[in-house]
Design a protein that fits this description.
heterodimer, A: mainly alpha, five-stranded mixed sheet, two-stranded antiparallel ribbon, 34 helices, B: mainly alpha, 2 helices, 62% helix, elongated
């Protein structure tokens, strides 16, 4: 055992640490450097799912049922597979309409119904008080185990100590204090609590590490690894039985399935899960990582459950209190520090759950139960001051204290009656009742308020009758008569075999009947009557939430007259005047209006106010409050459809606008790049023009300044000047030519040509040039060839360009050039092969660009750098292709193809 | 990855998980058999679980292209 003051001291020191973490989180949030804005913290905060029930109860369940502790975690695994679709939609909806609780979600979806909000809150409170009691029981039991002398009776007796000396009560009050400080210190219109989330994530880390530490100690400290532990368990028949599926009996698949489904629903619909996963979500993209990290967390925390259970059973025997093995195993081994760590882990599991659940439930109680009732009374309307923020906070704080005290009361009364697991499942079954209304509301537009009320009411009633009341009877609070003979003595109404249904365990039985009644009535009553205008408008907003784009606001289903002078004070009453003014200013800025007084009190502003108000007091109350200060016309179904139509038209227009903008942007980019090309071209041309001009001018100046220049030299200079002017005019001609071809203004005189004759003529023309270089030209022609329709002069220009290029690059005296003509079914290919130096690979792509000549600067031959680009343009005009073969071993081989039938035949211009 | 494709993959994985963790596929693992000293049935459950997590991570963290 560990001294009681030490345990208490550690517990309160841990709570203080939690305070520190939470206030650190709040401070960082105030500085704008959020600590919770990352997917790992988000995933850890989801692990608030693992309460004391997981921490202590799983081992207990494993000790009696083997793998039966697992469905409670396999369900969440399956649910999280769909999180990216389901939860993301919930987050999107909650963010768009400032929904802060599950009650608000359901109420808002079915036309902002106060009755529905109240019913959901009622179910939550009734269903969850036992669950909170369970956490307190977990803490109390853990405390008792820690402080009891070893070997004492393991049973915990909460009722024995008088209430004022019960540490659990003070623990509950401390938790209430913590929850108030970090959950209800000020009114946030989005119900976000960064510090609280930081503390919860920290708690998740603590409980995981503590449980893993105990598990590792048990497996490797007390035993010789997992193999040893399992081998020893296998040798005991009762324990070997735990490791099989059916444990000797037929496996209860339906119960397995029911538990999986139940926990899959709970992980989404438990108020605390909704709070951390939806309300406290910072960025919906965090779901991507959290959706798999959270199941991984569950896997890790369950890894050692079975080993610890088996080790406990081996160590203490089959009659021991298995729910305490996490503590008693280290204690029995004398590891007091580890036992304290395990205790802190259990404490963190319990406190985390209690804190978040209390915040979530208090929000519901305040917004959906107390406020609607208060707003109904005229006295309250008359006497309430102009600023109700303090009043709202007081309600929340009172609700938190009340919930924890209720939990404590339940624990004192029923604490001994049930094992942890039993209580937890009853609460799970209660929140599972939200599933039809929630899921139906998110994906089916036909659900109505009456349907949701009928379904929830029936489901809750069946749950109450088949699960809660029998649990009371088993605790001895109720006579067991109705269990055996049914209410009113009717056998058919026996709560654990309703209508005589047998063969299901009590949980599966209750779940089946309650969800059947729930979903059945929800669908049937919804289909009974067409949804009203308000139900339809809310259905559209919820089901199609992903169709709303950031650019275009969704449809606003409101019509009437309002005044800024009424709306602003209304918001101020519940949020504080300065905050309301800031919100209005912000809204005005977004609307492009200078001041809040200049705002147009249109439907959008009314909706804005209502949404902001919904964050503070719930959508149903917000509806009532807004309706009380504006004059509104009631909308018919036709109006709703018309507004929707207009909104979707607006969206279509904006979509078109976006498309046109994108097209314009693209065209602009194209223009810009063309402009750049033109600039490049201009600078290249002027550069090319300047070189000959400079030499002409230099020579001319020389001759002018030196009248005594010898005649021979003068003659030589004049020769150069003539040659340079020729080059200039050639260049100018080519630029003009190029421009004409590119702009499509070139003249083409097409005729039927015989390529063989054309090639022979070209070789003849360049004969002198090749002779001068000492090169030999050979001509390879096919025997016969169809005629080709093209411009003979232009083709000759191409041929001459290629041949003169070859002549320039072949070695002096030993040059060899082969002009070759091949043809196939598609067209003719002309190639010019030389035995020069060839074109280096890095220049191959460049030489067809304007002003890019081959060769390096030193041995670059005379030329304009426009020959090849023009040739290529000409060939492409005839539908052909020009290029440089890259498979030649020596020299360069230019080729061009010409199709027999150009794409657009006939004379062009 | 197209959002539609991702949704379909998730749905398929959900169906696979539902099938793997229920009758009759679950019964396949109920044998007197040990893997590395671990009883087959619990070990298989955890292995399947880990597999589902890995597949889920792969689908969700895949590049958005």
């Amino acid at each position: 055992m560990v001294a009681a003051p030490l345990v208490v001291g550690v517990a309160f020191a841990y709570l203080l640490l939690l305070f520190a973490v939470a206030s650190f989180g709040d401070r960082r949030a105030a500085q704008g450097r959020s600590v919770i804005g990352n997917p790992w913290v988000y995933a850890l905060s989801m692990a608030v799912y693992c309460s004391a029930w997981t921490y202590f109860g799983s081992v207990g369940r494993a000790a009696s049922g083997g793998v039966w502790f697992l469905p409670i975690y396999l369900g969440p695994m399956l649910a999280m597979i769909l999180a990216w679709m389901l939860l993301r939609k919930m987050i999107r909806i909650a963010r768009a309409y400032r929904i802060t609780s599950i009650a608000d979600f359901i109420a808002s979806r079915y036309g902002k119904s106060q009755a529905l909000a109240g019913l959901v809150t009622l179910i939550t409170v009734v269903g969850l008080v036992p669950y909170i009691a369970l956490q307190l029981k977990g803490i109390a039991a853990a405390y008792a185990l820690m402080t009891q002398p070893a070997g004492a009776a393991a049973a915990v007796a909460p009722g024995r100590a008088p209430w004022w000396s019960d540490t659990t009560l003070y623990m509950a009050l401390a938790l209430a204090g913590f929850t108030i400080v970090f959950g209800a210190r000020h009114l946030d219109s989005a119900e976000r609590h960064e510090g609280m989330v930081a503390a919860i994530a920290f708690e998740s880390l603590v409980k995981l590490l503590a449980f893993l530490a105990v598990g590792a100690f048990v497996v490797w400290g007390l035993f010789d690894g997992l193999g040893d532990l399992f081998a020893r368990a296998q040798s005991v028949p009762e324990l070997a039985r735990l490791l099989t599926l059916g444990q000797g009996k037929a496996f209860a698949y339906e119960q397995w399935f029911a538990l999986t489904m139940l926990s899959a629903l709970s992980v989404v619909f438990l108020p605390r899960q909704f709070q951390v996963m939806v309300v406290e979500n910072v960025d919906e993209r965090h779901l991507k990582r959290a959706a798999w990290a959270f199941p991984l967390y569950l896997l890790l925390i369950n890894l050692f459950v079975l080993p610890i259970a088996l080790a406990g059973l081996l160590h203490f025997g089959a009659d021991a209190n298995a729910e305490g093995f996490v503590l008693t195993l280290p204690l029995a081994a004398g590891q007091h520090a580890l036992a304290l760590l395990a205790f802190v882990g259990g404490l963190s599991a319990a406190t985390g759950m209690v804190i978040v659940e209390a915040i979530a439930v208090s929000t519901m109680v305040c917004n959906d139960l107390v406020m609607p009732l208060l707003l109904r009374t005229r006295r309250f309307q008359a006497t309430a001051g102009s600023d109700l923020t303090g009043f709202l906070l007081a309600i929340r704080r009172a609700a938190i204290v009340a919930i924890l005290l209720l939990g404590y009361l339940y624990y004192r009364l029923a604490g001994e009656a049930y094992a942890l697991v039993g209580i937890g499942l009853i609460s799970f079954a209660a929140v599972a009742q939200f599933a039809p209304a929630m899921l139906g509301g998110m994906y089916w537009k036909g659900g109505t308020r009456a349907g949701a009320l009928a379904g929830l009411g029936a489901g809750f009633a069946v749950w109450l009758y088949t699960l809660l009341l029998p649990s009371f009877a088993k605790s001895g609070w109720l006579g067991r008569d109705f269990m055996a003979h049914g209410a009113l003595g009717l056998e058919l109404l026996r709560p654990e075999s309703l209508l005589g249904l047998k063969g299901l365990d009590y949980l599966t039985h209750s779940l089946f009947w309650s969800l059947l009644a729930n979903a059945g009535l929800y669908a049937a009553v919804s289909l009974w009557r067409a949804p009203s205008a308000r139900e339809t408008s809310q259905a559209l907003l919820f089901v199609d939430v992903f169709r709303r784009t950031a650019a275009v606001a969704g449809p606003v289903f409101w019509r009437g007259r309002a005044h800024v002078a009424d709306l602003l004070p209304l918001l101020g009453r519940f949020l504080g005047l300065s905050r309301a003014q800031a919100l209005f200013d912000d809204y005005a800025r977004r609307q492009g209006v200078a001041h809040r007084d200049a705002l147009q009190p249109d439907a959008q502003l009314v909706q804005f106010v209502e949404t902001q108000l919904a964050g503070a007091i719930g959508s149903a109350s917000a509806r009532v409050m807004v309706a009380s200060v504006v004059e509104e016309e009631s909308l018919g179904l036709d109006d709703v459809m018309r507004i929707l139509d207009e909104a979707s038209q607006l969206r279509a227009y904006s979509h078109q606008l976006e498309q046109v903008t994108a097209e314009l942007k693209q065209a602009n980019e194209q223009l810009k790049s063309l402009d750049r090309l033109k600039d490049d071209f201009m600078s290249s041309v002027t550069h090319e023009l300047r070189t000959p001009l400079t030499s002409i001018r230099a020579l001319a100046e020389l001759m002018r300044d030196d009248p005594e220049m010898p005649a021979g030299q003068r003659q030589e200079f004049i020769g150069i000047v003539v040659a340079e002017t020729e080059r200039l005019s050639r260049l100018v001609n080519q630029v003009l030519d190029m421009a004409k071809i590119e702009s499509g203004h070139a003249e083409w005189h097409n005729s039927d040509i015989d390529l063989r004759a054309l090639l022979a003529q070209a070789v003849h023309t360049t004969e002198a040039m090749f002779r001068e270089r000492g090169a030999r030209v050979t001509l390879q022609l096919p025997d016969a060839l169809p005629t080709l329709r093209a411009d003979a002069d232009r083709l000759t220009q191409v041929l001459l360009n290629l041949l003169s290029n070859a002549a320039k690059f072949v070695p002096q005296g030993s040059g060899r050039v082969e002009l070759r003509l091949d043809c196939d079914a598609r067209g003719a290919t002309v190639s010019v092969q030389d035995n020069g130096a060839g074109v280096p690979p890095e220049q191959r792509a460049l030489i067809f660009e304007k002003f890019r000549q081959g060769g390096d600067a030193l041995n670059r031959p005379q030329g304009t750098g426009l020959g090849l680009p023009i040739s290529r343009q000409i060939v492409e005009h005839f539908g052909g292709r020009m290029g440089l073969r890259d498979d030649t071993e020596q020299g360069a081989c230019f080729f061009f193809t010409l199709p027999w039938r150009p794409k657009d035949d006939g004379d062009k211009r | 990855m197209l959002e539609r494709l991702r949704s379909q993959r998730l749905l398929a994985l959900f169906c696979a998980g539902l099938a793997l963790f229920n009758f009759p596929l679950l019964a396949l693992w109920d044998r007197e058999f040990t893997v590395f000293g671990l009883p087959l049935f619990p070990a298989a459950l955890f292995a399947l679980w880990a597999l589902l997590i890995a597949a889920l991570a792969l689908i969700l963290e895949g590049r958005d292209d």
